[in-house]
Amino acid sequence: MNRAVAKRLKVAGFAPRTLETGHKFYPHEDNVGWSQASRDHGVTITTYELQNHLQDIKDGYYCPNLADLIEACGEHFKRLFLEQAIWTAESKDPEKRAVAHSPEEAVAQLWLALHEPMQSG
Fold first, then answer.
1. CA-CA 20 to 30 A from 57: which of 8, 18, 40, 77?
2. DSSP state, 120?
3. Cα 39 from chain centre
C-alpha cells in the first residue's frame, strides 16, 4: 500500500484493531527521527518498533492487511477479483467499487468509498 492511501485511511478514520509486526507504516511527514527513505517507502514493523516507536506508528500512517480491510468493510464487502493484473474490490452497492494494482489497495479504496463523505464537484 502506498503512503497516500495509508494517509487517506487514517484521515477517514480507519482504526486498526491492533498494531502488528510484519505490517508497514509510513512515519509522519514531520517526524524528523526517521530517514527520508523511511518516510517515502515505509517501515516494516518489528517487535523493536512496537516497543520503542509505538507513538511514531500511531502518529504515522499504518497499512492494515487484507483481512483487516475486508473485515472493516463488513457486510458491504461482496468480492475481490483479479483480471489482467488489476484487482477489483466490489461492495453490494454496484456503484461502490475500487480498482488498484494490489488487493490491499483495492479493498482500502473500497473502504474509503464506503466511508469518506461524498465529494461535491
1. 77
2. P
3. 15
